């Protein structure tokens, strides 16, 4: 009996403590990061939780980007959705269309009385997640943009000046010839082919990727990336693939391993590939802007972003939204933004963070890390360069990948492949339009 | 000569059937009914709204050349997996059946791969044939063959077929061996005394007597190739390149869970249900006639 009363007391005590802990409002955040990025994310959460006592952010990994989005959708259907869901950029239209499932970030901030000025963000970074009226729907957490990584040692060994101009595709061509002639087995490779060579490519040359301002002005948008400039670019890459100058390694960032191992000389990849290259590359390398076609008058404009943003889900208590607002305010502070930018290679979302990074001497100590930011802010955005807002875009990217693989394998010419990708993609856009009528 | 057990009354038989009926209703009829219902709509992923489209999803699917191509892909894939895994299993079973010493060891070793889950088997084969770090692709490179299943559809199909058949060989082997051992030795010995050589004995005695086992395995393997190979395909090719390894069940997943197009996905499930039902009917109606029990 004595044992029983002791354990009962312990139970009561435990319950009381649990209650006092529950006075802290919990904010659930589902994300798609693993490894180093997850560590950095957890550090942010820990810092925020330690900085105040009202709210406790709980971050949970839900698999990769597609899996995290699916988990969020399934949870919403079951009424168990988290407060914050990290959604990759291609899921943006899906989230936007789900008006009853999300709570726009600008609303969350204004209801919580937080000073929040969209003008304090870099427009080409936030544009992807903003309504045409300029209201921010989701918070740009990790945004990157494609740049080109160069293995300087390989250029040197092939008898090429490592500082040679690589800013245009016209200049890149002869360099690849020289690399190939000197026996390099992988002169050029790329990650995220659709993103770098069609999506960003189109914006970079101010060409529409889709009608209706790339989908920003309505779901009745149609793909238009089979224009002459895009066809010319893909034709050239196809010829390079045939001649062994462009080595295809996979749809995602598989090629990163080849570049970091010193097999490939030039590599177009996300600016967020910086951390990996810095950690692993045993050779001299640098970062260059993504090349453009000098023949296109006015080019380059800005490239567009990839990565993910944070969506606030609907259906929670006002007190919990106050916590979400406090956390997003913490994430947008220049100090947090600058550290995140420097650690990961993701873009700073605010000019203040870029200025802070510069004043800390980071850009001077790590040459090339400012290129992605400059590439995004070179010119004011046009309707073709603000971003993409297309339904079923994950699937459309897969279609583009499939068709491009046909070109690299020499089974299709660029025009036929892009025409086919456009018509197959348009079918999906019509279905998305029907689902969200 | 039929032996029939009859129950008096209605309640006892109903009670005895009830557990199975409930299981079937909950795990088959309810989801199948849901799939049929959903296939008439285009819903948004969050379940906030639904557009009734009648048979529009089916029209869209059957008008899509990639979906029609997926039928051919599925046929090639299932026939190859079934033939390959059953052929090798039968060959190994015949060999193991003739062993006198150490047959237990062989049997145990041959059964091992069955314990490997399809997704794990997929990762295993994916690493061996990985175009960058794969052991096998490296050796092929040394022999002057440039292996690249990432771009070459034929190689991709070959790889997923082999990877899917591999784990299945064990399962088929077990059944074939049991079937072989159930054939009375006296029949075979009598044929041998009559001067029938091994191949004649196999063709005229063993194969017909083995036919119930073969038929059973045929049905089970086709169902396996249709549904359970998902893990292998997902880990090795994800349906690529250019959808050359996108079998029907993989497309249900890709359109529903990656593309969030639940209407199309539901319609595909319904079509798949019909296809498998039809296949099973054909097997029982036409092939089973040739089976000797």
TrEMBL record, chain A:
One Gene Ontology term, aspect cellular component: periplasmic space
Keyword Signal: yes
Record-linked Gene3D superfamilies: Periplasmic binding protein-like II
InterPro entries hit by this protein: Bact_solute-bd_prot1, SBP
Subcellular location: Periplasm
Keyword entries, A-Z: Signal, Transport
Signal sequence segment: 1-23
Keyword Signal part of the UniProt annotation: yes
Record text on subunit structure and interactions: The complex is composed of two ATP-binding proteins (UgpC), two transmembrane proteins (UgpA and UgpE) and a solute-binding protein (UgpB).
PANTHER family per record: ARABINOSE-BINDING PROTEIN-RELATED (PTHR43649), SN-GLYCEROL-3-PHOSPHATE-BINDING PERIPLASMIC PROTEIN UGPB (PTHR43649:SF31)
Recorded family membership: Belongs to the bacterial solute-binding protein 1 family.
Cited function: Part of the ABC transporter complex UgpBAEC involved in sn-glycerol-3-phosphate (G3P) import. Binds G3P.
Annotated protein name in UniProt: sn-glycerol-3-phosphate-binding periplasmic protein UgpB
Naturally occurring in which organism (per UniProt): Aliigemmobacter aestuarii
Record gene name: ugpB
Automatic annotation (TrEMBL), chain B:
Regions crossing the membrane: 12-30, 71-96, 108-128, 156-183, 204-227, 266-287
Residue stretches making up the ABC transmembrane type-1 domain: 71-283
Swiss-Prot/TrEMBL keywords: Cell inner membrane, Cell membrane, Membrane, Transmembrane, Transmembrane helix, Transport
Gene Ontology cellular component terms for the protein in this record: plasma membrane
One annotated GO biological process: transmembrane transport
Record CDD domains: TM_PBP2
Keyword Iron: no
InterPro entries cross-referenced by the UniProt entry: MetI-like (IPR000515), MetI-like_sf (IPR035906), UgpAE/MalFG_permease (IPR050809)
Subcellular location(s) per record: Cell inner membrane; Cell membrane
Pfam entry (one): BPD_transp_1
Record family assignment: Belongs to the binding-protein-dependent transport system permease family.
Protein purpose: Part of the ABC transporter complex UgpBAEC involved in sn-glycerol-3-phosphate (G3P) import. Probably responsible for the translocation of the substrate across the membrane.
Subunit: The complex is composed of two ATP-binding proteins (UgpC), two transmembrane proteins (UgpA and UgpE) and a solute-binding protein (UgpB).
Record protein name field: sn-glycerol-3-phosphate transport system permease protein UgpA
Organism listed in the record: Aliigemmobacter aestuarii
Gene: ugpA
């Amino acid at each position: 009996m004595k044992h029983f009363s002791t354990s009962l007391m312990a139970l009561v005590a435990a319950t009381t403590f649990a209650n006092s802990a529950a006075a802290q409002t919990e904010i659930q955040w589902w994300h798609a990061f693993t490894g180093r990025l997850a560590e950095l994310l957890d550090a942010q959460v820990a810092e925020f939780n330690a900085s105040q006592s009202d709210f406790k952010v709980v971050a949970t990994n839900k698999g990769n980007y597609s899996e995290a989005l699916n988990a969020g959708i399934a949870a919403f259907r079951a009424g168990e959705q988290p407060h914050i869901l990290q959604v990759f950029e291609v899921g943006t239209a899906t989230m936007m269309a789900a008006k009853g499932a999300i709570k726009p970030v600008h609303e969350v901030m204004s209801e919580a009385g937080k000073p929040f000025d969209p003008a304090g963000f870099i427009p080409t970074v936030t544009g992807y997640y903003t309504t045409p009226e300029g209201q921010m729907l989701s918070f740009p957490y990790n945004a990157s943009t494609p740049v080109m990584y160069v293995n300087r040692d390989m250029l040197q060994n092939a008898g090429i000046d490592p500082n040679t101009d690589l800013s245009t595709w016209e200049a890149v061509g002869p360099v690849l010839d020289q690399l190939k002639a000197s026996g390099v087995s992988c002169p050029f490779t790329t990650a995220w082919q659709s993103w770098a060579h069609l999506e960003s490519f189109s914006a970079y040359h101010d060409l529409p990727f889709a009608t209706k301002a790339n989908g920003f002005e309505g779901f009745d948008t149609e793909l238009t990336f089979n224009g002459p400039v895009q066809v010319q670019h893909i034709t050239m890459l196809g010829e390079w693939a045939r001649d062994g100058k462009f080595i295809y390694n996979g749809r995602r960032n598989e090629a990163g391993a080849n570049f970091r191992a010193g097999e490939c000389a030039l590599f177009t990849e996300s600016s967020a590939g910086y951390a990996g290259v810095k950690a692993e590359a045993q050779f001299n390398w640098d970062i260059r802007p993504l090349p453009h076609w000098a023949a296109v008058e006015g080019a380059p404009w800005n490239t567009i972003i990839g990565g993910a943003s944070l969506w606030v889900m609907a259906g929670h208590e006002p007190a919990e939204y106050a916590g979400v607002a406090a956390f997003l305010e913490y994430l947008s502070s220049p100090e947090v933004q600058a550290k995140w930018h420097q650690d990961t290679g993701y873009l700073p979302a605010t000019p203040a963070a870029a200025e802070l990074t510069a004043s800390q001497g980071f850009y001077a100590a790590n040459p090339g890390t400012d290129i992605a930011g400059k590439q995004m802010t070179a010119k004011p955005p046009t309707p073709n360069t603000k971003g993409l807002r297309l339904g079923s875009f994950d699937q459309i990217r897969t279609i583009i990948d499939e068709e491009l693989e046909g070109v690299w394998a020499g089974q299709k010419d660029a025009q036929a492949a892009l025409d086919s990708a456009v018509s197959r993609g348009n079918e999906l856009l019509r279905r998305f339009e029907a689902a969200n009528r | 000569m039929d032996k029939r057990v009859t129950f008096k009354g209605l309640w006892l038989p109903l009670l005895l059937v009830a557990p199975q009926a409930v299981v079937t209703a909950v795990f088959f009829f309810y989801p199948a009914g849901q799939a049929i219902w959903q296939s008439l709509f285009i819903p948004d992923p969050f379940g906030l709204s639904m557009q009734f489209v009648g048979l529009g999803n089916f029209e869209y699917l059957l008008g899509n050349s990639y979906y029609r191509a997926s039928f051919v892909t599925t046929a090639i894939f299932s026939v190859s997996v079934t033939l390959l895994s059953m052929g090798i299993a039968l060959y190994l079973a015949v060999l193991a059946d003739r062993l006198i010493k150490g047959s237990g060891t062989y049997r145990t070793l041959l059964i091992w791969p069955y314990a490997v889950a399809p997704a794990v088997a997929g990762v295993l084969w994916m690493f061996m044939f990985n175009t960058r770090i794969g052991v096998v692709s490296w050796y092929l490179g040394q022999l002057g063959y440039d292996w690249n299943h990432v771009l070459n559809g034929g190689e991709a199909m070959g790889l997923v077929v082999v990877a899917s058949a591999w784990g299945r060989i064990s399962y088929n082997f077990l059944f074939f061996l049991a079937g072989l051992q159930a054939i009375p030795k006296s029949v075979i010995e009598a044929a041998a005394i009559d001067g029938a050589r091994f191949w004649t004995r196999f063709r005229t005695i063993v194969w017909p007597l083995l036919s119930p086992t073969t038929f059973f395995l045929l049905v089970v393997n086709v169902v396996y190739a249709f549904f359970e190979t998902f893990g292998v395909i997902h880990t090795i090719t994800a349906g690529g390149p250019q959808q050359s390894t996108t079998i029907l069940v993989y497309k249900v997943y890709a359109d529903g869970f990656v593309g969030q197009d639940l209407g199309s996905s539901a319609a595909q499930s319904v079509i798949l249900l019909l296809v498998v039902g039809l296949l099973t009917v054909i097997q029982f109606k036409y092939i089973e006639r040739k089976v000797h029990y």
